[in-house]
Amino acid sequence: MSTVSFHIANLLEKMTSSDKDFRFMATNDLMSELQKDSIKLDDDSERKVVRMLLKLLEDKNGEVQNLAVKCLGPLVAKVKEPQVETIVDTLCTNMTGDREQLRDISSIGLKTVITELPLTSQQLATVICKKIIGKLTVAIARQEDVTVQLEALDILGDLLSRFGPILQQYHAMLLDALLPQLNSQRQAVRKRTVVALGHLAASCGAAHYQKMVGILVEEMQKGIKTGHANTYIQCCATVCKNAGQRFADYLDQVVNMLMEACQKSEEDELKENTLQALEVFVTRCPQEMGTLGHLESVLQLCVKLISHDPNYNDDEGSGFHPLNEESMDTTTGDEDDDQNDDDEQEEDEYSDDDDMSWKVRRAAAKCIEAVIVSRPDMLLYIYQTVSVMLIVRFREREENVRCDVFSAYRALLRMTKPAVQALNESRHTGLPPSPEAAAAVQALDSQIPQLVKIVQKQLKEKNIKSRQVALQLLSDVVGVLPGCLAPFLTNMMNGILVCLSDKNSTSNVRTNTLTFVYCIMSSHPIEVVQPHVEVLLPALLTCAGDNFYKVTAEALLALQVLVKVVRSENATEHANAASIAQQIYPIVLRRLKATDIDQEVKETAITTMATLLAHLGAFIQPEWGVCIPIFLERLKNEITRLTAVKALNLMASSQLVNLDLTSVLGEAITVLASFLRKNQRALKLATLNLLDTLMKRYSLIESGMLQSVIAELPPLLSEGDLHCAQQALQLMTSIAVYQPRALEQAAGVCMPAIKVLVRSPLMQGAALGALMEFLRALVKANIPGYSSNRLLSIFLEPDSVVSPSKAETNAGVHHKQSFYSLAKCISVISVSSGPHEALSVANSFVSELSKGPGLQDTQVVIALLSIGEIGRHVDLSQLGRLREEILQCFSSPSEEIKTAAAYAFGSVAIGNLPTFLPALLQEMAQQPKKQYLLLHALKEIISAQQNVNISMWTEDIWSALFAHAECPEEGTRNVVAECLGRLTLATPEKFLPRLKEALASDSNLLRTTVVTAVKFTIVDQPQPIDPLLKENIGDFLLSLADPDINVRRVALVAFNSAAHNKPALIRDLLPELLPKLYVETQVRKELIREVEMGPFKHSVDDGLDLRKAAFECMYTLLDSCLDRLEIRDFLTHVENGLRDHYDIKMLTYLMVARLASLCPSQVIQRLDRLIEPLKNTVTMKVKANSVKQEYEKQDELKRAALRAVSALSSIPDADKHIQLMEFVAHIRNSQELQALYESVQSDTNSGASNDVPMNIE
């Protein structure tokens, strides 16, 4: 006998003991054993354990019975099929028996077994279901025993929920058994039947579904006439909720029937059920409800019934009326509240237990919210017809209904936020806003006075929940329309103080109030908030001393903003700033000194004290010696050091107070230097930023003090973290400017790291700019041993460069991009030394070029690029053979030299346009074989037109470009298109109409060039061209339907660029453009051709690039124009892409993951179609004789597919989808796939954590 069997046998023996405690402990130990993954039972042990647990279900002790039931769950996954059948048979028999206690415990056991049945074993599940189904249907039909009937319906609901698709053969029988129960006299039976039918609807076939819904609709129609329709209405809603789009075919008939019945009937229950059903229809089939024209009538019904209160007469709140001038009175204060005290007391005292009309009002509010959330395109209509009534119903007397009304209006505010953002974007870009968005925002703005008048009364309500929802609503209002509460702040202060100071206020109310105060002070102009500072201050100080950490932290955050309101740059100082500073200081100091408080409070106290010192420090100068040393202590603490670094930076960079930090500076710099060695990126960046600020603010820091900092900088000058390298270079620049002596030795230490950094292909943009600033400061600092000549020799040393031809094979040593970085460094050193020195350096490079073929390619490339960079800043026209030497390089056999020569010619021309630009245009006319290089040179000039004026040559340039717009070579056309686009960007009124005219050309090549040119006019920053471009971009994007495949491809690229950089340009055009876009996602057989490669035939898909561009555009639209997409159509084309080429599969997997996050409710309805192609990818095997690249591609595909599966699994209720769960179980049962899946999930989680912002204020 094995050890496990022996141990189990001992436990089973103890379970037969007469002592209940022995039985309990033995059963508990068995539970622990069964939960272990490693346990394996032999056949004999299985039989004994099953027999014993089933026997214990009849135990006299309730606790032992409960434990035995719990053991059944893990046991089902451990024993073989015959034993599971034994368990199920016994439980079913007991459940339908006469002993009530055994019947109840067996029902629970059966539910446990069904819940724990493994999804991966369909055969076992089928056998079990077959055994259970027959007995359940018999039990359901037993009218005389309701308890058994209810338990059977519950179990059947669970069974259909988990194994609905497996039970296909029993669906007809189940349907016949369940439908009659809808007429049961027992409400509990009817409710459970509705649930079971809902689960059945989710998995049954089309015939059974049609039969079910047909009977429901027919019976509902009869029931409406006889007054017994409520159960059938609920059932239709449940079926729609579970079956989603399948119910769309019956929507029109059902909705018309319900609307008519609701308007005629006086029965509150029917109205409630109708509204709940309409809410489900709107949520699950929003587009169909709109297409059928029902949404407007649904909203009208909701507006009518949200005030349905027949037993209560409220002259103000009942009935729909527009906001009139009297109702918009904004002077409501305490007097008005006092006048209504008696009425409010009567409202509180009113109670009628038999009044169920509140359920109707609540259902109406929820239905309105469903329309708001599911149909954002109806925003303006909702403001015009519904929002006013919601505001009026804020006076609702029933607390639950009032909360739902507030929730509906908060949903409306959330849906309005994109409209406000679009309006702000239009102001930023200069593009005209969408009329609907502007009208919706204007409607909200006009309703603010009445909203505030009603809501501010809720702040003084005794009911805590009312206060909370009112505060949340006001915070949302401020979040959507910053500054909108300015006229009402005086009247609101009393309510805010009540929420903060009232003894009955809970910590949640205080926290919400403090959040609201923070929102007000940070979103309203300082001059509006300043008059209320002294009113709020005592309450905020009291909350800052509260014992609950959340309240304290929120109060300190509010005090931070209050301090900025009292005194800030470019704002009038508060008259009592000194008194306010002296009141705040002791409270914050107490929190700052404390060490036994919550981490959040510690960090907030540090930041609050830093803000106080930075803004009001002048008024508490005698206390500097007390509080500033505490920051040094916090700097040495590992938990608070990051916050302390940022706080010190805030203090040191203050423009309002000249804080004396010299007392802690010496020790602090040593500590800060040690932080540069820490493996915490956020800490290193914050430390570098602080040191830079200290250097600029306290430029008299001793050079000896800086040596410990400088010694830590070389390791930071690495391509591994370019942002960190950029910060380090900025610090070195400040040292070179303010304390150059400290760099005398340090420059030698850092220069090797800088030479390596210059070689990096990533060294461009802001990091390269920081390096150039450092070199400029170093030259001007005139440090001995680091003159401009010495620096030039360092960068031009042979070990700094290698041949560009080796760049690809030896990327670790040098990269092509590094030659451009090196040239910029040489240029900045030369130009910083003065024009004469720059000319001398450029002349030396020209002389070097004239040496001819003896030069290495490396030397020629660096010479040309350096000449070009120097020529951008200094006029080199006086150098004798400059032009000839550059043009001679155009004929070099080396592509790198030719590219560098083109760059040099264009760059040199920028320094003296009258001399070089006409010469360039002349060369273009005379040298047809060098057009590509000359166009690149011209592109450099056009790209620099913000710094140089080329207006007198634009016509000549335009003509020269158009002469090459139909070049057969795509590379040449792309350069021409970029030049045309940049010219148009600078002079849109002149050139955009010309591009538009060229669209009518018969030449496919010209149309391709023109559409590509438009792409270069779309940049992410506001430009003068934007309004004109919005008017005309539709004409260019209509090229999506062009007969030429290349024109369509570049039109898709332009569409993608617009959607990414300026979505406002194309938002209103999407209804017209999306069908054309979706057409391009389809595989076209006419674009697939066969190419013979020796004895083999190879298929080439000319439409692949087109489809790839279309899917890329779809992915971009998900981020920028989600509110304008019809997700159902979008998903259909994503599903097609899941079966396409490798590149398109990768894109669609990303889209599936994104859609799972953005539109979970729509995605979960299409899971069946999404899972199959994902499963095919994950289970696909690579052929045995495949090359390494094929294995790598397949691995990447699997990873991308598993990311999509992980995203789908995280959707709420996805665990109820049997196919998805089976797929996930299959993944987890495969060792290879399990490892990949866990790797993907950990990558996703780490990516999400890295998205958290690291900088605080």
Description:
This protein has 1257 residues and is mainly α. 70% of the residues lie in helices and 1% in strands. Strands 1-2 form a two-stranded antiparallel ribbon.
Short note summarizing the structure:
This protein has 1257 residues and is mainly α. 70% of the residues lie in helices and 1% in strands.
Question: What secondary-structure arrangement, pairings included, does this model have?
Answer:
Layout: H1 3-15, H2 20-34, H3 43-56, H4 62-76, H5 81-95, H6 100-116, H7 122-141, H8 146-163, H9 171-178, H10 187-203, H11 206-226, H12 230-243, H13 248-264, H14 268-284, H15 286-291, H16 295-305, H17 334-339, H18 341-349, H19 357-374, H20 379-385, H21 387-392, H22 399-429, H23 435-458, H24 464-480, H25 489-501, H26 507-523, H27 526-529, H28 533-544, H29 549-566, H30 577-593, H31 599-616, H32 624-636, H33 641-652, H34 662-675, H35 681-697, H36 703-710, H37 722-738, H38 743-758, H39 766-781, H40 788-795, H41 816-832, H42 835-849, H43 857-871, H44 882-889, H45 895-911, H46 913-926, H47 931-943, H48 954-962, H49 970-986, H50 988-998, H51 1004-1015, H52 1026-1037, H53 1045-1061, H54 1070-1079, E1 1088-1093, E2 1096-1101, H55 1104-1120, H56 1127-1137, H57 1142-1158, H58 1160-1164, H59 1167-1179, H60 1188-1209, H61 1218-1229, H62 1231-1250
Antiparallel strand pairs: 1-2
